[in-house]
What does this fold into?
Amino acid sequence: MPLIPPTTGIVVVVFACVYLGMGIGRWPGLMLDRTGIALVGAIVLVLVGAVTGEEVRAAIDVPTLVILFGLMVLSAQFAACGFYDWCSRRLARTPVGPVPLLALTVVTSGLLSAFLANDVVVFAMTPMLTLGLQRRGLDPRPFLIALAAAANAGSAATIIGNPQNILIGQTGGLDFLTFVAVCGPPALIALALSFAVVWLVWRGRFELVDPRVQHGLSEAAMARSLDRAGLVKAFFATAALLLLFATPLPRVEGVLLVAGALLISRRLSTRRILGLVDWHLLVLFAALFVVTHAFDVTGLPQQLVTALESHGMPLASPWLLGPLVVLGSNTIGNVPLVMLLLQILPQAGPDLLYFLALVSTLAGNLLIVGSLANIITVERARDVGVSLGLLEHARCGVPITLLSLAAAMAWLGWRHL
It folds into this structure.
């Protein structure tokens, strides 16, 4: 049933306030972050009667949230076992020069992010890697830029690499292996470009100017043990999930089974594992499902699409959708943008979904605000005394993004997508 005009006006105002908040990051004068803004917006829509309780339940894509939760539990298992810390220590202590070390950072971050949550990868690896590099007298900043860029690029290769891919894959019912075949090659090119650009921009400047400025870890911290039994369990769980996604087996039930098995442990408490789950992101997803559904019901998005088509500018055209996705990913964020576009383009076919997944993910490297992985890397580095500025990141992020997107468009065009 169409909404009456007054309610439509309220929905538009709430929608605008929520997505403006997504772009700014908070409402001025308040401590509400993006999750809080989306949640308050959904609550307002329910209270004014713009959406009913039944519509809320229908709007929230529970299977997507379940899959995202299960992958977070898997990443939490790796983190709790000390795997990410171990990877960071091994990287920082590898007896090679700065350039090979930069390449190893890109490969490690990209590979882990393709199968585990990229946000968790950078959250866990940034502090240990930063401090380990400082012990060697190396400037952590180029390596941190490469770490975040590779996390974004690597996550573009698979359906389970990042939240927006999970959402796209679940919405379109995309096949895991086909997704890898389409999105994997440009993701690999983006990884190579991440290394090449950072190396070119920072060549000759990898060492610290003042090697006395080091916040090195103690030997005890650097030698922290790895829970090998728990790690074996995590690798078996990863293999089970990959098998699950690569076959016609039911994904939601399988993810729940794997997550439940990981929670049964004699070494790791349930509280510790669940404490590593990004509940804020799950709440953000749920709230945005409600907000975008209410906006879609007004009919305004479809009117906009129709108006664009009448002027010869179909929204599904790569030449219009591509710049829109790049702009949106670096303002309101790639997850809110993808959620909105999936509402506006409900009949999008696989080709368009592959395009959306690649562009929204690779565009995240443009600016620090382009992806949560970038923001997490900067904030975690700041916690251990390293400041990474917007311009420092942009000098690498802009060329990485433009070259990666050009390569992706060439690849998709070659495949006639």
In short: The radius of gyration is 21 Å. DSSP finds 21 helices and no strands in the chain. Confidence is low (pLDDT under 50) at residues 1-5, 212-223. The longest helix spans residues 176-202.
